[in-house]
Amino acid sequence: MARIATLKPSTFHCFRLSSSSSSPSPSSLSFASTPLVLPIRVLTGTRRRPKFPKILAFTSNDIKVGTNIEVDGAPWKVIEFLHVKPGKGAAFVRTTLRNYVTGNTVEKTFRAGAKVEQADIFKETKQYTYKDGGQFVFMDLTNYEEFRLDESYVGDKVKWMKEGMDCNLLFWNGKGPLWSSIEMTLCGRNGFNSWHQVVSAWCHCGLEFTGVGRGVEGCGIVDMHTIIGEVDNEVIGFEVPMNVKLTVVDVDPSAKGDSAQGGSKPATLETGAVVNVPLFIERDEVITVDTETGQYLSRG
Fold first, then answer.
1. Which domain holds residue 290?
2. Which PROSITE patterns does its entry note (predicted)?
């Protein structure tokens, strides 16, 4: 069951829905300067955690491959770097960064010694349990807490995933794209045609109403800035194990060659991935595959 955090009323602004009847009909949005007493729960799908022990005065000189940094409010991983000391001019650090959320890579240059913000990214092992529509569901086996990750975060890693597999979920102690999306939707004041749209948009982002009275009069939506302040850590991605054991479900029977000379043939695995395997590998055998390169490693 998902962990539920209850928000207490405070001095934040709230949305208020008004309607001429108690039936789901087109409504209008107005704003109240005092909090509504209606309790609202947040299905966080996130974890609270002490702040990351950051290195004091972390600068571009400390950048290495694998370093996590924040640039323009987004989390990035350094995949390449080079310290450059030109004959003339100031020294600088040239980097290639990969965005944890979008997967995009960019090149960015930092002045040598410039202050750089570290991204508080940490990993926790969760078990992949099943797929629910466009979401992959993971579970913490210590407390049975569920975490849902949209398939856009998974990408082509799905070809290595099978139910019951332990994966690493990546958490970022900051305001991520999910909250930004909700904030744009609910705080943008674009208007909604019905209270159904408001509740749908709210629940789609992992939030739900509780204690709503008869009809829609008085239903409240907490300002997103308050939610952002309450929820620290957001799931931004995951990692499959570097090596996985998968069963071969199909091989090309017509493939021929000299196995002593290292011949290979394509094999389809239980997850749908296709890898090249030695000629001696047959159907129903279990093999170990490197998920980074997609290469066959060994039997069993």
1. 243-299
2. EFP (PS01275)
User: Exposure of 20 by Cβ count < 10 A (0-12 exposed, 13-18 middle, 19+ buried)?
Assistant: exposed
Identity at 176, one-letter amino acid code: G
pLDDT band at 189 (very low <50, low <70, confident <90, very high): very low
Q: What is the SS3 assignment for 161?
A: coil
What predicted TM-score, i.e. pTM, was given to this entire model? Answer: 0.55
Residue 43, in any domain of the structure: yes
Name, in order, each residue with C-beta under 8 angstroms of 106's C-beta and a sequence gap of 6 or more.
Answer: 96, 97, 99
In a domain, residue 182? The reply is yes
Three-state DSSP at 118 gives: strand
Asked if residue 168 has pLDDT above 70, the reply is yes
pLDDT digits (tens, 9 = 90+) for 126-157: 999 999 998 999 999 999 989 888 887 788 89
The residue out of 208, 232, 256 marking a domain boundary is 232
pLDDT tens, 8-51? 333 333 333 332 333 333 333 333 333 333 333 333 344 445 44
Query: Interhelix angle for 195-204 vs 177-187, to 10°?
Result: 170
Alpha helices in the chain (DSSP H): 151-154, 177-187, 195-204, 224-230
Residue that is last in its domain, among 147, 174, 201: 174
